[in-house]
């Protein structure tokens, strides 16, 4: 068969070969060009490392890619680095009609990455003709991605943003499978995305919620413990991370797409690549993982070499060729995504790098840190353009305007600042939160800017004139105390913002009262029957609130900060410390005619400073843990009768005591440590029953449930651990593990009357589980 040079096929074929094979390949290319093919040789392109953008554009436009291999290029059956890099780059540059073929110049073993491609031998009879015809048939029957039709273009109908499609409530199925009955509170703020001029996607400790900016009405919500999040550029996927797992949600239908597992420490940061084929994750294990996304389960493409500390920030540039990683080691590293080569390390940030962002035109990288400043780096030379100074706290969040002319930065000082990117001049300080900022973002058209803070407020302004658009308060503060009334029908929840909420745990449910009389976190609360709630807060005040009307009054004010304090479960007694080596006891009488609080006595003889104070389950003894890992126990009957000895000392095996839990009958004390161990102590027999191990983070809360047959522990990464206890041999058996929250579980209660377990977390939510 003859093949005319005057072919009507408009071809674009890229040949990839190493220098050792170029003489042979150039002869082949010359024959193909005579036969009418448009050929580009890899040697005609600039260096791959210096110009990854040109390479991606070339691969995107190529209708056929030919890999040329031989024994010369693969002496040890290992693919050349150029071939390995380009096969990865092909995976990151999708083209549905692209033809990939491997041409064997001599007999050789194909690398695994090319075994799925079409393969031809050039050294057999009529091999050139078969190869030429194969190329021709493909090019003649597939569309040219560069072709432009002459017909009048039709304006496409804009599809709604995927986040605007679903309605209603969704949840992580595994929560219900583990017996979740109810969640209280949306949680503390995590991240913010402006979908359009009318809707904001707010990410909190309890999961994402889409809010109408007009009145804050939720359009949909997903119950999903969340520590950090990332929204894909198209809005199709939402990545939510809690603990060591990443959940990918399809927003258009509210369904869980897939789960990524593999990190060994809490994930702190996520970022989607612009083409949404990659997602990067980093956290406390100091590693950055690159995941390749597909219709099936995501797979780990690579794990980048470790930072020397926690990975805290991630950002892809606009064309996805670069990934910036920031760390608590105060450095920023720049990586090429297709071959994962480290091309630059940027130092001198003066603190943990908390936020990273590339400008839309790829010319600048902004890095915000706990050093209270933002550095703007020029990506062409990696030289520092300007340092932005003025914040009085750590810079936690930043975002470029879509036009790239403006940079917004938010910090723990509560301010949102706008800067000019060309000169670094401060344009304006827009509003102010009462607490640190968590997230800031521009609307897609750049007309609005929004900020979310730890004061649980969402503010939105017009970018042009900084006119306020709306101010909402959609979230709740960190959970700092939990208590039940004697019948188990009322739950009082204290928060870090000084508010207390009383929830009804009846079948009808509902919120009975929400008060915010304190100006600091609620440290402890207890019901004083029949109709009072006593609260102690870090503002040094002790207050009584009537559970029927919400009316409250100050009972008294302590000398210390109350940061270490505990109320007896019946509300009659307060134990607190001023930070010295003593504990003060106060009797409480909330009636209007009474004085409110009466000083009783001081407990002395502690080995160290008090760090944790608890009453046992029946409020018959006071348990005090100190900073020297010592525990002292005072029995109230002995104190009342002035019987000696007043206290009992317990030897502890953990380095730092983080939690205490008492069995309902008072016989067993569980002691949780910062090392993830639990010591079981028999109070009557004065002996250790055993040590529970295997928890990978600090044990931050403990409780007994199910008639003292179950021990429940909450850890610093939001997990609930369950053990079945057999009193015959005191050998607890682990029975369950629940990824319950996205923050330390600091409060656990067992509702004996309704057989429910209640967990309260730093993520700002309380979850009620069937026990």
Describe this structure in words.
This protein starts with 12 loop residues before the first strand and ends with a strand. Residues 1-11 have low confidence and may be disordered. Strands 2-1-3-4-5 form a five-stranded parallel beta sheet, covered by helices on one side. Strand 48 (610-615) and strand 49 form a beta hairpin. The chain has six helices and 62 strands. The protein has 771 residues and is mainly beta. It folds into four domains: 13-141, Toll/interleukin-1 receptor homology (TIR) domain (Rossmann fold); 187-295 and 308-472, YVTN repeat-like/Quinoprotein amine dehydrogenase (Methylamine Dehydrogenase, Chain H, 7 Propeller); 476-648, Methylamine Dehydrogenase, Chain H (7 Propeller), CATH 2.130.10.10; 651-771, 7 Propeller (Methylamine Dehydrogenase, Chain H). Pfam families: WD40. WD repeats lie at residues 260-301, 304-335, 346-387, 388-429, 430-471, 738-771.
Record keyword descriptors for this entry:
771 residues, mainly beta, Rossmann fold, Methylamine Dehydrogenase, Chain H, 5-stranded parallel β-sheet, 5-stranded mixed β-sheet, 62 strands, 8% helix, 46% strand
- Whole-angstrom Rg: 32 Å
CATH structural class of the largest domain: Mainly Beta
Q: Say what the CATH topology of the largest domain is.
A: Methylamine Dehydrogenase, Chain H
**What amount of the residues lies in strands?**
over 45%
Query: Shape, please?
Result: elongated
What level of helicity do the residues show? under 10%
Oligomer: single chain
- How many discrete structural domains? 4
CATH superfamily of the largest domain: YVTN repeat-like/Quinoprotein amine dehydrogenase
Mean pLDDT: 90
| N-end to C-end Cα span | 79 Å
By DSSP, the count of extended strands is 62
Structural class: mainly beta
């Amino acid at each position: 068969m003859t093949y005319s040079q005057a072919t009507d096929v408009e071809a674009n074929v890229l040949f990839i070969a190493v220098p050792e094979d170029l003489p042979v390949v150039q002869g082949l290319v010359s024959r193909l060009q005579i036969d009418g093919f448009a050929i580009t040789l890899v040697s005609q392109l600039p260096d791959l490392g210096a110009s990854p953008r040109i390479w991606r554009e070339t691969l995107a436009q190529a209708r056929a890619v030919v890999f040329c291999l031989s024994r010369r290029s693969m002496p040890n059956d290992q693919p050349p680095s150029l071939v390995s890099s380009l096969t990865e780059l092909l995976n990151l540059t999708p083209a549905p009609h692209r033809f990939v073929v491997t041409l064997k110049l001599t007999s050789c073993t194909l690398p695994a990455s090319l075994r799925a491609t079409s393969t031809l031998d050039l050294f057999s009879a009529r091999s050139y003709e078969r190869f030429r015809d194969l190329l021709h048939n493909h090019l003649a029957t597939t569309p040219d991605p560069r072709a432009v039709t002459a017909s009048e273009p039709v304006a496409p109908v804009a599809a709604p943003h995927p986040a605007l499609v679903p309605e209603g409530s969704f949840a992580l199925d595994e929560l219900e499978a583990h017996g979740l009955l109810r969640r209280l509170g949306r949680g503390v703020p995590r991240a913010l995305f402006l979908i359009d001029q009318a809707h904001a996607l707010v990410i909190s400790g309890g999961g994402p919620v889409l809010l109408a900016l007009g009145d804050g009405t939720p359009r949909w919500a997903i119950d999903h413990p969340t520590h950090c999040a990332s929204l894909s550029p198209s809005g199709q996927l939402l990545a939510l991370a809690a603990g060591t797992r990443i959940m990918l949600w399809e927003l258009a239908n509210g369904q869980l797409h897939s789960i990524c597992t593999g990190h060994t420490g809490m994930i702190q940061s996520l970022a989607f690549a612009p083409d949404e084929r990659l997602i990067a994750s980093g956290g406390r294990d100091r590693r950055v993982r690159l995941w390749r996304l597909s219709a099936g389960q995501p797979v780990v493409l690579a794990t980048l070499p470790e930072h020397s500390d926690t990975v805290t920030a991630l950002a892809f540039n606009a064309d996805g060729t670069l990934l910036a990683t920031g760390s608590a080691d105060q450095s920023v590293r720049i990586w090429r995504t297709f071959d994962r080569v480290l091309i630059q390390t940027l130092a001198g940030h003066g603190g943990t790098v908390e936020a990273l962002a590339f400008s839309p035109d790829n010319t600048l990288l902004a890095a915000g840190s706990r050093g209270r400043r933002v550095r703007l780096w020029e990506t062409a030379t990696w030289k520092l353009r300007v340092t932005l100074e003025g914040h009085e706290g750590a810079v936690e969040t930043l975002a470029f305007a879509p036009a790239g002319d403006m940079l917004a930065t938010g910090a723990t000082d509560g301010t949102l600042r706008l800067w000019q990117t060309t000169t670094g001049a401060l344009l304006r300080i827009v509003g102010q939160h009462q607490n640190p900022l968590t997230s800031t973002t521009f609307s897609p058209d750049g007309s609005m800017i929004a900020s979310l803070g730890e004061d649980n407020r969402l503010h939105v302004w017009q970018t042009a004139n900084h006119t306020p658009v709306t101010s909402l308060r959609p979230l709740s503060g960190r959970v700092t105390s939990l208590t039940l009334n004697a019948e188990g029908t009322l739950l009082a929840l204290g928060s870090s913002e000084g508010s207390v909420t009383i929830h009804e745990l009846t079948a009808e449910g509902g919120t009975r009262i929400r008060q915010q009389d304190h100006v600091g976190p609620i440290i402890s609360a207890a019901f004083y029957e029949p109709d009072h709630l006593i609260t102690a807060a870090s503002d040094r005040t002790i207050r009584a609130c009537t559970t029927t009307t919400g009316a409250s009054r100050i009972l008294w004010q302590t000398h210390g900060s109350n940061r270490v304090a505990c109320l007896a479960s019946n509300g009659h007694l307060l134990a607190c410390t001023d930070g010295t080596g003593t504990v003060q006891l106060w009797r409480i009488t909330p009636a209007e005619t009474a004085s409110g609080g009466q000083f009783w006595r001081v407990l002395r003889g502690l080995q160290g400073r008090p760090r944790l104070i608890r009453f046992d389950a029946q409020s018959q003894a006071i348990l005090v843990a100190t900073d020297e890992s010592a525990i002292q126990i005072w029995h109230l009957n002995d104190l009342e009768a002035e019987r000696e000895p007043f206290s009992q000392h317990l030897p502890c095996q953990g380095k730092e005591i983080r939690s205490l839990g008492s069995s309902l009958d008072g016989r067993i004390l569980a002691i949780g440590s910062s090392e993830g161990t639990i010591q079981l102590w028999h109070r009557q027999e004065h002996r250790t029953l055993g040590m529970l191990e295997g928890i990978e983070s600090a044990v931050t809360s403990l409780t007994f449930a199910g008639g003292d047959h179950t021990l429940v522990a909450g850890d610093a990464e939001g997990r609930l651990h369950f053990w079945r206890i057999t009193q015959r041999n005191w050998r607890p058996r682990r029975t369950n593990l629940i990824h319950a929250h996205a923050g330390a579980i600091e409060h656990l209660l067992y509702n004996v009357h309704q057989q429910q377990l209640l967990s309260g977390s730093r993520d700002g939510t309380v979850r009620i589980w069937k026990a």
